[in-house]
Design goal:
By secondary structure, the chain is mainly alpha-helical. Helix content is 62%, strand content 3%. It has 13 helices and two strands. The chain has helices spanning 2-12, 25-43, 46-55, 61-87, 90-110, 120-138, 141-151, 154-180, 184-187, 207-222, 259-270, 279-285, 294-297, and strands at 190-194, 198-202. Strands 1-2 form a two-stranded antiparallel ribbon. Helix 2 (25-43) runs antiparallel to helix 6 (120-138), helix 2 (25-43) packs parallel to helix 8 (154-180) and helix 3 (46-55) packs across helix 4 (61-87). It is elongated, with a radius of gyration of 24 Å. 38% of the residues are buried.
Amino acid sequence: MCAARVAAQAAAAPPPPSQRKSASKLSIAVMLFQNFLASLVFSIVLPSLWPFLQALGRTEVYTGWAVAVNSFGSFVSSPVFGFWNDRRSTREVMAASLVLMVVGNVMYGLADKSIVGVSDTGNTYILMVARFLVGVAAGNFAVVQTYFSYATKPSHRTLVMSLNSGTSVLGFIVGPALATLMSDKVVGQHAFGDAQHFVVNINELTLPGYVSVAFALLALVSLVFVDEIPRDPKSKEPLSATNDDGSLGDGADDAPPSAIQKVASSMEWATLGSGYYVADVRDMAAPPEYGRNAKSYRYGASGA
């Protein structure tokens, strides 16, 4: 009986440190691109958003609502995506968010009186819903940050997190810069379709949306290069959070957790599904005399 129980526990145990996997450089690069895209799709429409709404007969107040509804979408979706990612695969969550991004940006482009018979008020609602959907899709930044927290080695994590922040800023830079290249003086105005029923307008107002569609499709295809990194289902501690030599730490196994470890553990539990892991905080802030090992980190372990 005892022997069978020990054998079952050994079979269910996570792999030893030497067998734990971290993401490849290509996988990290693809996820960095996903984070870059989340910032780009927010910022690329900003230069033309007010002229777009003005063309629909709206006042400048609607510009603030269009920006706010995008951020609200990310606020709503980021914990949902985090919760989903904890229970399913990273690629699945990212793919779903990118499909939403494609749909939202197509709707944004069609809000420029493409559907014959829809009033300016109706097109305004289409634009607002489109920006909300794009914001929901951009909430996948939570999944990206979570991925970096467990799919990278501790010795590489600071660099990757810095690159992640840098790509976010780069997206806010590149988005408006691209938008300035899409003026009617540069791209002109084009219309495709039947003027009696449905017209696709390509101009400085709609092109940012359609360019975002192209970026989102590229990001969707690139997901095939993302490595799925397994995690211990009984612990929120990432399987790859080991030292480069495969060791779990340098302290005593039975050392009690420090106050900062207890607070950080509570923070991690409270933010479950939000896309943020604070294992790094504990690594950096815990005094060395308490040790850093699986027993003092893991929920439900003795001494925790």
